[in-house]
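Board notes (copied after class):
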Amino acid sequence: MILTGRRHSDFLSGLPVTPASGAISLSPADKLRLIHAYISSSPTDGGLGISQDAPEWDLVESIFPLHDREFNEHWIRAWNPRNIASVQLERIRDQFGYSLAFYFAFLSSYTHFLAIPAVLGLFSHFFLSPYSPVYSLLLSVWSIVFVEWWRVHEHILSLRFGTRGSFKVEKRRVQYKQGLSWWARELRVLVSVPVILLFAGVLCAILTGIFILEAFVTQLYQGPGKHFIVRHPPVQ
């Protein structure tokens, strides 16, 4: 019944659907996901509606799956300095799900791409002047290239994992109330705008203060200990 509901939801969302005939092999991550979806989904969607957000289940603090201790211990022992970069995405996907597999794929790609700004930093330190616009331009180009490359690589991984378009599948929250007018929903979104602007202003003020302090210490300060202060790493 759970698998039938999943196939029906995938079909309505335009996702690849496993044929109904024949034996269907589910990975441990898929089994846990289906069971969790059946437990936590609202009764309207065919679930039990058990959630910590539901008023009738106020004694439930959280829902989490049991871990395969044997697999976890074997996986932890496999992590060593020699093969720490050779993470098998398929095994992570089958055991922990697609989200964690995408996380490790992004982490591996980002770590490899960090070699470029590291080389740029060494080059600018020895051959360019402080606050060089050339270094800023090259770093901006690297950022754009990495973001666009990851978008393409993410699409390739989604096709490889069979999750292309999975964002279309929406889960109804158990505390969802039908009949809420559109202006009430938009009003809730607008309430968060002042808070976002406030913290954005605080972040800009902090970054501006750090840049001013760094410029003062490296360019204007001529007092005692200047030689050591200049070499001190900037505050992050």
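Comment from the instructor: DSSP finds nine helices and no strands in the chain. The CA atoms of residues 81 and 184 lie 54 Å apart.
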